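4.2 Preliminary Data

To establish feasibility before requesting continued support, the project team ran the inverse folding procedure on a target of 331 residues. The structure was first converted into the token representation described in Section 3, and no sequence information of any kind was made available to the design step. The complete token record follows.
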């Protein structure tokens, strides 16, 4: 497994992030523990979760599964760079159960981090991420809360998720004015071959301010994982976003061209999509969310895959990016 620095920090992380969103809803605790053990065996040391994972009535369950795994010992916790998130309410229907029980007020951050630490059975979180922007809470308040948590030893770094470029800038400019905090060190964003809008402003902002970029949904909901081939072979049919996309003839033709290209090169589509992200400027590590050990093995193979210049050019022709800003929307 290859490693890199997380943004401008001294923290070394693997070029893949183990996403745990499926732990609980789709993968039971025993299999989740086996996947985490296998991840460590490959050298994958960066694990990502969120307080709301487990979903519905089981929000928090994913953190509990990870906490039970840490409790097995053998230096599991010490080997992992652990990232979790705060923002959403912990109720089953997503409603606010009581004022100040969601979003990024200093009060909710304090409450949420203590609850995550308890579920995770650890006394610190390496990267504490804001799951969404909070339009009602000023960054001065957010950074005050983060400073206290750092001083208490409960978190080491702060990161963002789903932030637009201007909010990354606003957050880190506020941190710089206040002093005493390093500001955001990472941004977790939607980014893949089929969804490249992050290249316009989010990734440039992250690079300018020294944030590591952690793409989520690298296969775009399964769309880039050989979905048409699986349908033809009688396997799992597309659902959700992938099915909606394939319903459009133009989009289906684009995905077919993508799968045909990779078939010509003898490369699995899902592995190519991950390998492509690892070639992109500013990207630290994409998040992979395996439901099985076999899916983890495929992701590890992708991290070792070298894509030729010819193939990279052909992928750009099928999935052209928007280009840099402001040229992408102006002259």
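Position-by-position output of the design step:
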């Amino acid at each position: 497994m290859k490693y890199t620095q997380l943004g401008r920090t001294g923290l070394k992380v693997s070029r893949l992030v183990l996403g745990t969103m499926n732990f609980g809803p789709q993968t039971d605790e025993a299999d989740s523990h086996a996947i985490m053990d296998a991840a460590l065996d490959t050298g994958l040391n960066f694990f990502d979760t969120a307080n709301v994972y487990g979903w519905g009535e089981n929000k928090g369950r994913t953190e509990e599964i990870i906490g039970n795994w840490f409790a097995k010992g053998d230096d599991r916790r010490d080997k992992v760079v652990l990232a979790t998130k705060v923002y959403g309410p912990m109720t089953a229907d997503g409603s606010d159960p009581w004022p100040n029980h969601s979003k990024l007020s200093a009060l909710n951050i304090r409450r949420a981090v203590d609850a995550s630490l308890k579920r995770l059975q650890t006394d610190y979180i390496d990267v504490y991420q804001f799951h969404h922007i909070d339009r009602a809470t000023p960054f001065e308040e957010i950074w005050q809360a983060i400073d206290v948590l750092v001083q208490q030893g409960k978190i080491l770094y702060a990161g963002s998720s789903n932030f637009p470029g201007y909010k990354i800038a606003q957050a880190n400019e506020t941190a710089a004015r206040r002093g005493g905090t390093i500001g955001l060190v990472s941004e977790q964003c939607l980014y893949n071959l089929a969804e490249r809008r992050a290249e316009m402003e989010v990734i440039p902002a992250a690079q300018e301010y020294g944030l590591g970029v952690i793409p989520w949904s690298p296969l775009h909901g399964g769309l880039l994982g050989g979905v048409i081939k699986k349908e033809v072979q009688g396997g799992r049919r597309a659902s959700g976003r992938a099915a909606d996309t394939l319903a459009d003839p133009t989009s289906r033709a684009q995905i077919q061209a993508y799968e045909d290209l990779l078939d010509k090169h003898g490369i699995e589509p899902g592995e190519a999509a991950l390998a492509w992200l690892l070639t992109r400027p500013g990207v630290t590590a994409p998040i992979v969310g395996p439901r099985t050990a076999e899916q983890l093995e495929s992701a590890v193979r992708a991290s070792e895959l070298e894509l030729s210049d010819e193939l990279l050019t052909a992928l750009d022709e099928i999935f052209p990016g928007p280009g840099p800003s402001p040229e992408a929307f102006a002259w």
